[in-house]
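hey can u check if this looks right to u? its 544 residues, i copy pasted from the old doc so theres a chance i mangled smth
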Amino acid sequence: MAILVLLAIAGILLSIYVGRQEASQYAAIERLKIAEVVDAHFGAVQDHLSLRENLANVVAALFNPPPLTGSRPLRDFGKQVMEIVPDIQTIGWLPEVPVSAAGDALTSLQNSDVEHPQFYDSSGQPLKLAGLDRPIYPIIDVAPEKNRRVLGVDAGAFPERLEAIRRARDTHRSARTEPLRLVQAPDEPALLIYAPVFRNEVFRGVLGFGYKIDRLFHGALTVPKSASGFDIRVKSDVSDVPVYQLAADGTAANPTALLQNDGTTVIERQTEFGGRPLTFVYSTARNIAREARWRGLSFAAVSLAITAATITLFAFMANRASLLAREVRSRRSAEDRLKMLIHELNHRVRNVLSVVQAVVRLSFTPGYSLTDVQKTCEGRLQALANAMSLLTASDWRSVSFRNLISDDIIPFADRIETSGPDFALRPRAAQTFALLLYELTTNAAKHGALSVPAGKVSLEWKVDRAAEPAIFHLHWKESGGPPVQAPARRGFGELLIRRIAPRDVAGHARIDYGAAGFSYELEATLSEIEYSHQVIDKHAFSDA
C-alpha cells in the first residue's frame, strides 16, 4: 500500500512538472513567432520612414540657396520633389535671416509677387523686429502654389519649430517636430521635417517638409504589408497619447479603440525618425498565457491518466503475487518463487511505464491536434497491450512470432502475405515487434499499399542458424500502392522503425522509399530476440 501511495505521489508531481514545463515552452515559442511577424513588419516600416528622412537630406544637399533677395527658388525645384514623393503635403524654403538683413528678405517676398510683404508671428500678427535677439526664419517660398498664403510667416516664432530648426543646424541632420497644426491646414495634424542647408560650411537655412500624420503613418504601416491581426499604435517620446493608430482590420482608429486589456499580447519596437524616437506598439487579441495554461493542463491530464493506469496495473499484479504466495506458502520452494515474482513485477512495471511514457511523449508531434494525438496513442497502446496479453498468457516467458501477426495486434492482418518459420520471442522483443508491425501496418494503411484495394504487402522472415552468430532477417515489402516518399518530418513512427526497434534488438534497419513501393528490412542477432528453454526463470524475468 505504501508503494502505491508513493507511486501516486510521484506520478502526480511528475504530471504537474510536465504540465508546467510544456506551458512555459509553448508560451515562449508562441511569443517568438509573434515577435518574428512583428520584426518583419517593423523592418519595412523603418525602411519607409528612413526613405523620407534620407530624401529630405538629399534634397537639402542638392538645393542651391539663392541670394537673400532672390525670388521663387522653389518654383520648379519644389514641383520636382513633390512628384518624386507624392505624400509630401508641402515644402518650403526658410533662410536664416539676421534681423539686420530683414529688409533683404522682404525684398525677396516682393520679388515673388507678394503684395505688401511683411513678417508674421505665430498668432498671425505682424512680427515685431525691435528688440528681437535671434535670427528669423521666414517662409520665403513654398510649394505647391496653393500654400503661398504662408509666405512671410516666421517659423522661429513657434517654439517647437524653432527648436527643430536649431537641432537640424547643430547636428547637420534633418530634425522633425512633434505633431502640430500647419498654418495653411489647421484642421489636420502634421509633422514637419527640417533639413539643414549648408554652403561652404556656412548654415544658410532649412528646407521644411510637411507630412500629414494620417497619410504618412498609414502608408508606413500598410504599404509594405499590413500586419494582419495586430492593432498598432505610434507614440512619441513626449506623450502617452498615440500619434496614430491602426486597427487590426487595416483602418485608422481613434485612441480609445486600442485600449489594452488583460487578454492581449503586446510587443513594442522603437526607431528614430527625424532625430527623435518613435515607439510602435503592436497588440494582438491572443491570450498566450491562457493558451499555455490549457496546453499544460492537457499534458498534465495525459500524464495523470498514465499514472492512474500504472498504479492500477501495479495493484493488480501485486494482488496476484499475494494470492500466489498464499497458495504455495506450505512449500519451501515457493519462497524463492515469490521473491523472483516480486522482482519480476517491479521490473516489468518500470519497463511498461517507460514504454508507455515514451509512446505518449513522442506521439505529440507538432502540427497535430490533441484529438489526432489521442487516436494515435490509443492505437499504439492497444497494440502494446495486446502483446502484453499474449505475454501474460505465457507467464511472461515468450510469444510466438506468428501470434503477433493477427488482427488483435495489427490492423489488416488478413491482407498481409506472410512467409517464414515460427519461433518464440523474448518478452522485450515481443513488445518491440508488436509496436514495429503496428507502425508498418498503419503507415501502409494511411500512405502505402494498404490505402488502396489493389495494394499488396508481403512480410517475409528467415532464421539463418548456420551463421555465426545466428541471424534473424525480416523484410516488409509493399507494392501496388500510391507513390511514396520520405516524410518531411520525423514523428514517433519514423523514429521507431529507423532507430528504436533496431536498437532494442541489437540490429540494424534499412528503409527504401522506392518507386515500386515502400520497403523495410531489419536484421538482428537471433540470440537477442529468441526465447530459449534453457534460460533460467531469473533471466527471463530480467529480460522482461
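Residues 2-62 form the longest helix (61 residues).
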